Backbone:
């Protein structure tokens, strides 16, 4: 009962994806963590072009382990998203429609998602070996000096994620917990 | 006096770092599988199945269970009749560099907390040493991810806050952490000592098997009660709701001052890793 999504996600598609939906993502995504986000937003503030096309882009918050010689990429699970909260509203305004991480988001991010149309997915934190198997190619786009934190272009196939916060601001972390606790009362 | 060559320490730390990152300890696997069999919430069952599948893949393919292969915490219990030939700290750090380099583990350490340049080899280790009787050297390597470390808290409670104050602080810490530390979590709690000792005890508590309760029955009961109450919060695996929020609560204590009640809560994720060897 997973929703299959072929990337990129347009603004319209983002508005159709609902909180709580399990999705399988296929196509191109970009990786960026704290340090890369900081650099990307500094470029936006200076009015400069980003090193990749942010229009309808999905960014995965991941710093993978190094690939062994026979691997595309090492373990590649999500990092905690709130550290990107300072930067996400600017990227969403610039065109970003999908974010993949884990954990809570701040209200400014949710407001930007509602305003522009974007969706926040969670991948399973700590499942780096499993998620790695969905990544079919990986190449460094920029910021190679950041090592694991460099921006990479990934081609993924059926990457399992859950839509946590949708473009209406519905939040699975709140609703899932509430639904479970309700079920315990009955 | 027994001599141990520092080079042997380097080799041992390197091997333990790789093994700890690729093979989940039996106690954690057993707790996750037990939680899966008891979990009734469907979403939570699905997440736990994927977590079990993940550590199976990691062990089969000899790859890190989680991409955050951590800052490398190294606990040394040094027998007082041991003489280490060579520089101990250098030997441990050389082991971290070797293990993280040759083992294709992530380099996640910056050399300065504000200047933030990656050291490139995951050194230095966070080194904890304890002098114990005997002529052995026990080495425990515990890679610590920071998604969970960031959700840890410490509070200097008043003696009048008592056991209820401790419980309330632990529950508040876990509740505020919510989905962030990759639940199901392991909760290490340090009570007593000083500001710094409480934090150390909390980290040390995470080194104890998740299936082993505190030897003091009073604290064993407190561990059980806190685990039950944490699992009644409803956070669930990955925070999507469910019973399985924590796999274990481990408490360590020590004497403290008449004026104080320090409590530290060190949170660890479902990839709670540590591996030991005795030289």
Residues:
């Amino acid at each position: 009962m997973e929703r299959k999504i072929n990337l990129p996600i347009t603004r319209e598609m983002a508005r159709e994806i609902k909180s709580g939906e399990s999705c399988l993502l296929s196509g191109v995504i970009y990786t960026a963590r704290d340090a890369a986000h900081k650099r990307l937003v500094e470029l936006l503030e200076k009015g400069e072009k980003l090193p990749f096309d942010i229009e309808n882009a999905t960014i995965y918050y991941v710093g993978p382990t190094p690939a062994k010689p026979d691997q595309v990429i090492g373990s590649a699970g999500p990092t905690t998203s709130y550290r990107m909260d300072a930067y996400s509203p600017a990227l969403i305004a610039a065109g970003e429609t999908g974010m993949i991480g884990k954990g809570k988001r701040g209200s400014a991010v949710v407001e930007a998602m509602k305003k522009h149309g974007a969706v926040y997915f969670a991948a399973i934190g700590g499942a780096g070996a499993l998620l790695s198997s969905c990544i079919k190619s990986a190449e460094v786009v920029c910021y190679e000096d950041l090592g694991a934190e460099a921006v990479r272009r990934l081609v993924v196939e059926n990457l399992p994620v859950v839509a946590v916060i949708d473009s209406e601001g519905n939040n699975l972390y709140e609703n899932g917990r509430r639904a479970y606790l309700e079920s315990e009362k009955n | 006096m027994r001599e141990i060559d520092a080079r042997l320490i380097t080799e041992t730390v390197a091997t333990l770092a790789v093994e700890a990152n690729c093979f989940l300890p039996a106690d954690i696997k057993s707790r996750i599988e037990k939680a899966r069999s008891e979990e009734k919430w469907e979403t939570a069952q699905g997440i736990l199945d994927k977590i079990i599948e993940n550590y199976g893949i990691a062990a089969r393919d000899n790859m890190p269970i989680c991409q955050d292969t951590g800052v490398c915490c190294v606990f040394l219990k040094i027998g007082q009749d041991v003489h280490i030939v060579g520089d101990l700290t250098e030997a441990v750090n050389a082991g971290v560099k070797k293990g993280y380099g040759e083992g294709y583990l992530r380099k996640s350490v910056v050399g300065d907390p504000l200047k933030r340049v990656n050291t490139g080899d995951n050194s230095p280790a966070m080194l904890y040493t304890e002098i114990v009787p005997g002529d052995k050297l026990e080495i425990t390597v515990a890679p610590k991810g920071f998604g969970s470390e960031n959700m840890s808290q410490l509070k200097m409670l008043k003696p009048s806050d008592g056991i209820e104050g401790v419980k309330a602080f632990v529950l508040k810490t876990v509740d505020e952490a919510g989905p962030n530390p990759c639940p199901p979590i392991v909760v290490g709690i340090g009570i007593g000592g000083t500001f710094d000792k409480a934090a150390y005890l909390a980290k040390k508590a995470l080194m104890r098997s998740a299936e082993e309760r505190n030897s003091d029955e009073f604290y064993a009961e407190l561990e059980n009660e806190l685990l039950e109450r944490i699992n009644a919060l409803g956070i669930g695996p990955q925070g999507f709701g469910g019973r399985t929020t924590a796999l274990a609560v481990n408490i360590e204590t020590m004497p403290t001052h008449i004026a104080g009640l320090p409590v530290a809560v060190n949170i660890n994720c479902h990839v709670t890793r540590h591996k030991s060897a005795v030289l």
Q: What stands out?
A: The two ends of chain B are 14 Å apart (CA to CA).
